[in-house]
């Protein structure tokens, strides 16, 4: 009996390792694919009053953020968490931290930068992937360390399966408690890892659903 239990556990462990390796391989491929698409340049004209702040691991939310900043002529800031680097270790840490934050909202990672001067902005877009049905921990940490007095805040997410309405409501409550006067949520469903939108399809969806833009035929 013990022998078969050991064999069963070994099979499960091997399967978990294979899944982890497959996910990290897909993430690395995605990161390389989207890295050079729509590089962001600071607005040439006077600032638009809009700021885009985002966190991204595999680059999909980063691409969405660059696209939004380009559409709005906005300043763009990336949140970094070195412990979430691409690869099996970073994936495991990000998953554990996402689960820990769901269990205890005070469990937040150290982010860089912790604060950004948002005082001259009237609109702040906050971008994040969805982990465990919730915006990823780094964007929660950013809200914890910053204020949004008198500002309109737009949370935008890229995600593979679904998000929890309770988590979005909790995020809204946190943003409003930090001074925001209004809030909205925009999102794009990219699909499961083996059947995802291409980067071009994702940007097209953002244009149509977020900005009401239709491609010319």
The share of residues in extended strands comes to 15-25%
Number of helices: 6
Mean pLDDT: 87
Q: Order of helices and strands, N to C?
A: HEHEHEEHEHEH
Task: Tell me the layout of helices and strands.
Blueprint: H1 2-34, E1 50-55, H2 60-72, E2 75-79, H3 88-103, E3 123-131, E4 134-135, H4 137-145, E5 152-159, H5 165-177, E6 182-189, H6 199-210
Helix pairs in contact: 2-6
Structure keywords:
globular; alpha/beta; 217 residues; 6-stranded mixed sheet; 6 strands; 6 helices
Account of the 3D structure:
- The protein has 217 residues and is an alpha/beta fold.
- The chain is 44% helix and 18% strand.
- The protein has helices at 2-34, 60-72, 88-103, 137-145, 165-177, 199-210, and strands spanning 50-55, 75-79, 123-131, 134-135, 152-159, 182-189.
- Strands 1, 2, 3, 4, 5 and 6 form a 6-stranded mixed sheet that branches.
- Strand 1, helix 2 and strand 2 form a beta-alpha-beta unit.
- Helix 2 (60-72) crosses helix 6 (199-210).
């Amino acid at each position: 009996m013990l022998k078969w239990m050991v064999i069963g556990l070994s099979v499960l462990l091997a399967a978990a390792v294979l899944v982890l390796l497959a996910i990290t391989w897909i993430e690395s491929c995605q990161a390389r694919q989207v890295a050079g698409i729509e590089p962001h340049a600071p607005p040439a004209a006077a600032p638009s009053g809009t700021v885009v702040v985002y966190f991204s691991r595999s680059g999909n939310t980063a691409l969405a953020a660059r696209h939004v900043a380009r559409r709005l002529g906005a300043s763009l800031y990336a949140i970094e968490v070195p412990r979430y680097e691409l690869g099996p270790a970073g994936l495991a840490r990000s998953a554990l931290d996402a689960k820990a934050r769901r269990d205890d909202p005070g469990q937040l990672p150290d982010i860089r930068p912790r604060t950004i001067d948002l005082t001259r902005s009237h609109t702040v877009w906050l971008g994040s992937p969805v982990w465990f049905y919730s915006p990823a921990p780094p964007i929660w940490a950013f809200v914890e360390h910053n204020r949004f007095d008198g500002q309109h805040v737009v949370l935008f997410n890229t995600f593979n399966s679904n998000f929890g309405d309770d988590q979005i409501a909790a995020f809204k409550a946190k943003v409003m408690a930090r001074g925001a006067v209004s809030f909205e949520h925009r999102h794009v469903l990219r699909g499961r890892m083996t059947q995802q939108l291409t980067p071009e399809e994702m940007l097209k969806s953002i244009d149509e659903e977020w900005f009401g833009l239709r491609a010319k035929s």
